[in-house]
Amino acid sequence: VSDPEHGNLAGLRVLVADDEVMVAMLLEGMLTALDAEVVGPVNSTETALRAIEEEALDAATLDVNMRGSRIYKAAAALRQRGIPFIFVTGYGDLSDCPESLRDVPRLTKPFRLKDLAAALEGVIGQA
Amino acid sequence: LEADQEELKASNGDGVVQMNEKQRSANKEIETSEEVLQSLNRGLHALNAQLQGKIAALEERSNDLNNLLNNTDQATLFLDRDLRVRWSTPPLERLMSVRADDVGRPIGHLAHKFRDADLTSDAERVLETLTPHEREVRTDEGRTFVQRILPYRAHDGLIDGIVMTFSDVTRLKEIQWELEGRTEFAEKIVDTVRDPLVVLGEDLMVKRVNNSFARAFEVTAEQTVGCKIYDLGNGQWNIPALRRLLEDVLPDNNEFEDFEVEHDFPDLGRRVMLLNARRLDHARRILLTIEDITERKAAQEQRELLISELNHRVKNVLATLQAVAAQTIAHAESLTDFEEQFSGRIHALARGHDILVRSDWQLSKVSKLLQYALDPFSRTERISMDCEEVWLKPEAALAFNLIVHELAMNASKYGALTATNGNVRIDCRRVGENGSAMVFKWQESGGPPVEPPRRKGFGSKLIEQSAQHDLNGSAQFEYRPEGIVCEIRTELDGVSEGEGRPA
Asked: How far is the alpha carbon of A22 from chain B, nearest alpha carbon, in Å?
């Protein structure tokens, strides 16, 4: 569903995975402002994997560092299902990122509404 | 007459004959004697010649001996049984005032250059005991000699005086001194080095270990010296990597540097060792330092982790600030209202951080958290508390701090804390089996009448999400007319006993 008035994210179901409640709420607020429908937020790799399993998703934003562990498992699950996603991270570089996930676009914290929109639109356009 | 004549004749004749015979025999004897004499003479000649030969040989030997003694540069003094000078070699003249005409003088009369020698009593002792005597003596010029005294044995085995020799060992002493200096230098370096250091022979036998080595590997120098390195500490150094370094790498290279070996030691556990070695070809030794870098490596990894964590947190904090600002501005009634709420929330976040620092990122007490969170608000005397002691993990403590802040801010802006006779009652107790969960209840009364909100405010949303995500629980709001009631339930999940830092 594309609505030029509200950008290309309108009506899309976007999974938000972030363990910082404030940031998760910010993402939720921003995605709502972009007329997307938020799934979650979830705050661990396990809950993210469950959401991927159970929910119909159009896209996802994944915080890389979730309670001290990495979200890469959830990323792999998304990739397997062909669901586009971006990484949201405080890290400049992800040196421990698996080779297969190197090409995932990264949104570096802190970010603006238009950065989030552009990053998501970028991966959705590819998919 | 005739007869007489005849008789005379006869007797004459007889006499003559007899005389002739005697004459002949005498002549014969003389001849024999001459022969004897001649042979004797010949014998004497031969003997003489033999004697001459022996004298010549003796002279030759004597010359040899003199040349030898003069050539060796060894000062030698021969004394008779009364310790009088018999003769001496020329080099002695440099040490003692003795000349050819001093023969026969007692040794005690001769002046010498030795600083600490007692030649007479040394010589007397040797004559008495018949045992050789040897010691070092020094001259006034600082030269050192080895003085040797031996009994002089004549050919018949009788003692006929003594022989005293002085050998110059000054250079030898200097070299020895220098050598001792270098040994001391080397040994002190070995002892000064703070890393465990072991000196090995070419056969990989331990020659020496320094104090650090003994300390680090819980051995004594006595236990190690003479052992093969592989046998140290019940063979705990019999490591393939070390064997390879010592037996394959070192023979082809003079050294190896900063070689990391990770190994499970029977007594020390899993350690990371940094090995450095030098092969000393001249001294035929191997210097090997073994530095335990396990802790340093762990600290380094910890530091890297902290730095990347800090990086992450800084960015997250900025994102959080951005989120707080965005959400606060969306719900603010005015700029003043925004300023008040925004700075209140920033302070709450900062306080949360203080709590974590104070508890060293371990557990925090709920009563303390409440005290800190409520501290910035006025009319806190209107808040009554009944709290069981519960401990929260760092993430839960941070969330709890924010929840209490949001509740208190709402109460002092719209609720019970705006009115002089408003009250807040806080109850906090463990519930469930073994007290595995906590119920925290915030109950307002006496404030302005409350109506359920038309839409969820940022505060209640934050409380709900925090309770859900960070407290692993839930938040329930009840909008009673006399005041808001908020009940937070959190699974402690071993939190009260648990420890650990957040990653």
From this structure: 5
